[in-house]
Structure formats: structure tokens, C-alpha cells
Amino acid sequence: MKIIFCAIILIASLCAQPIPFDIEIEELTFHSEIPALHSFSLAEHKDEWLVVGGLTDGTHGDGEQVFATGQFPRRNFNKSLWVISPKSGSVHSVKVPQNLSASLNVANAQHYQVGSNLYIVGGYGLNEKNKYDTMGVITCINVPLIMEAIKKKQSITKHIWQVSDERFRVTGGELKHIDGDFFLVAGQKFIGKYMGNEKQQYTFEIRRFQVDHDSKQIKNYQAIGDDSLYIRESNRVTTLANKKRFRHDLSRIVRPEISKTVELHKRLFDKERAGGGNDKDSHLRRRDLNVTEAVFPDGTRGFTLYGGGFQYSAILPSMHQSPIFFTPQKNFANCHAMIDMSFEQTMSLYTCAHMILFDSQKASLHTVMFGGISAHVYDERNDEVVRDRMLPYVNNISVETISGNKSPQSWQSKETIVKKDSRAQTFGKDGFFGTNAKFILNSMGRQAVYQGCDEVMDIQKLQQLTADSITVGYIYGGIQALKQNFGKTKACNKIFAVRLKK
User: According to the UniProt entry, where is the signal peptide (predicted)?
Assistant: First the structure.
């Protein structure tokens, strides 16, 4: 019945756009060589970007090598710090010093910028002994000063300080910051090779802490898990007539030509489920998810957990499809965390570029997802969403909407596939984009940020701007997949300008 309920939401959302703007995406062209990276950390200063870490090849580097050797190629970890201008295309870089390589030359680290400082937590890479590991380090980088040093080819070490702490040996989660508190959301500790690994443990937690810059210490650490989640189930009833637009296509996973790859996929997942002694079914058993800043319908700030892998009890890799709404409280034990089991997200379930808008007049929050990896594909001809258990790459643009009133129990989720000229809108011409990419606000987008927020734009502020078309930010990097399933992938160096048109 849950799947049928989701179909109702999707049918309705195919007919109307949730935001009062058209989304325009333009690929920019530069003469300079923009680095091709994904799964990196990024900060911004005066419309230039500092890029740290990440990988220089596709999904798992050379996929065949990963399955053959069980590990990422060592050469594919980014070993430079980059300064990139999305306006001019200028690029500056320096090599990471050897004494910082283990903590900075990592992929899938959690990161967040607060003012002039970029904080990087954990990440997966090669430790001081050149072994595959998740790093237990928090790094603080002074963004303006280190960008200037990179441009002048000066020493960067004096602009960085670090704290070692085993509680932050995490990769694949997300880092958020609200009112002086950091939140390390979900993720895992992964030690050893990518396949054949015996030391993989999900955190199953949201961890709150503060950073004392004077003492360079971590303060007021607390953590919550599943026992703090309020679960809302669907109590709606529908008819089988609505099921036609939300169907399963088993032919997508049993075709003979992909049976070998399916078996490798299953072997990998079986290894993951056997990875840690503390493994279990959990709504917080998530990694490689989207954690998006939120202003909820009641006006409170928080964040939403969308997607992420993987569900423990699934036979094949299965992403989480029910979002979690989280609103922090000073007493951490009283934080409000609710999982909306009445809704299942279908698109963009893996880390991807995303843009957030809040409509204070309608008390609705809209998170625009750009491409990424999904649990479904959109069938244009039949105007329906088709289940694909191989988790395909997509280049659709979708919007996840939360609306309601001041009571959290009233909040409703809805998903919309964005259309243009009656067809599903996509971006990028030569593949599928968005996975492990970043959307970065520019100066115009930051002018429209909602009060007290870092990433959420205010729809009312945007509507007051005089220009009919407004460039609010850029999509950079990520994975470029040539096919939806089982094709070659590579790191992407493309920059897309994102415009909102009234």
C-alpha cells in the first residue's frame, strides 16, 4: 500500500511545478583546464572556490580494477589544493604537503564552511602507512588566507590546524552547522579495501559538537540514534487504478548481458552487510546521502536527510527512500527527529548537487535535486516512473517539497519531476551528471538567502529582484556517466550556470 500511496503523490506532481521560476542550466566553456573531480570538499570566497580532496576518476576509479583487486587505484586520490574562478575559469593549485596528505587527500569527507573557515571531518583515503582507511581528524582551514597563499605559491600549512579524534573517523556522511553547533550526520567507518573489507561500520547516529578555536578542542559532544526518531506512517487508502504510473520493470535487472555485473553488485552488497559486528536495520544506516539545510513549515531551522544507502535487509542494494526531518534543540535529547514513512522518494537518492528555496507565504520548502543516482527512471513516452533496482544514473531535475503548518505531524512530502515544454527537463549533453557534484551559490544567490540560513534562498527575495533571469549559482564536478547502468564513468570538470527565470 505504501508504494501505491507514493504513486498518488507523483501523479499529482507531474502536473504542476512547485516553484514560481523556470530553471535554466547552461554549460560554461573556459580555455583553462578545470580539474575533473568528484567527492571533494569545497568552500567559497568572493565568488572563487577552494577545492580540497576528492577523486580524479569515475565511480570507483577503474571499475574493473576495483572488482579485480578490491581497491581504489591510489593514483586517483586528488593530491592538490585548487582555487577556481567560475567567472573567468582561472585555476591555481599547489600540492598538499606530505605531513597533511593523509588527512586532506581523501574522498567523501564531511565538510562545511562557517564564515572564513572550512571544516573537514574524516574522509576515506590512504593513511600515514599508505593503507586504505577512514581518517579520524577534524581540519580547520582559513579560506581567504589559504586561497591567497595558493595563488602566490606560498606555504599553506600555517593556515590549517587539526584535531585528531576517533569519534570523527567517518566517511560518506554530511556535516551541518546551526547556531554554533556542528552536526555530523550518518556515514560510516570504512577500513581497508573497498571489496573484501571486514571493518565497515555505520555510525547509526547524528552527532552534535562544538569547536573551541582558542583551545582548538572539541566541546559538548552528544549523539542520538534511532530511538530518538518519531515515525509517521501513512493512513491513506487508494485504488489499484493509480498504480499504473509507478511500476516495476523486472526486465531491467534480469537481462542476460548484465547478469555478471548484477552478480558482482550482489557480492559487493553481501560483503557490506557482513562488514561490521554492530550492523543492523536502522533508519540512520545511511551513507552517500543528501543532508539539506531546511526551514520547515513552522519556521524552525534544521535539516532533512534524503536518500542514502543502504538498507540492511535488502537482497540487492536498496537506498533509503523516506526522508528524516531534524530540528535541533539546546537539550539534545529533546531534538525533534521524524521519519516520514508515508512518502517514498524516487529520484536522486545518492549524494548530488542540490539547490534549496523556501516560500514563507506558502510555508513550503523546496529542494531541487540535479541528476545523481536514483531508484527509478522516468519513462517519457508513458509519463511514468519505472523502478530500476540497479540504481541508475539520471540527469533529470526533481524537486522534493515539504509543506504543512506549525504542527510537525502535518508536514507532507511531495516529489515533482521538473518539466519544460511538457517534457522532463534534463541537463548536460553527453552523459548523466550530478552525482557527487556540488551546487554553489554565487553572490547574487547569497543576497537572497533566507534569514539566518547559509544555503536556503528566500523565494520572496528572489521575486523582488528586478531582473527576469537571475544566475544564482553553479554546479561543479561530480561523476559523468555515459550510460544509466553499467557504462563507463569518469570525474567531471564541467561547470554549469544555474539561472532562475520568472
Answer: 1-18
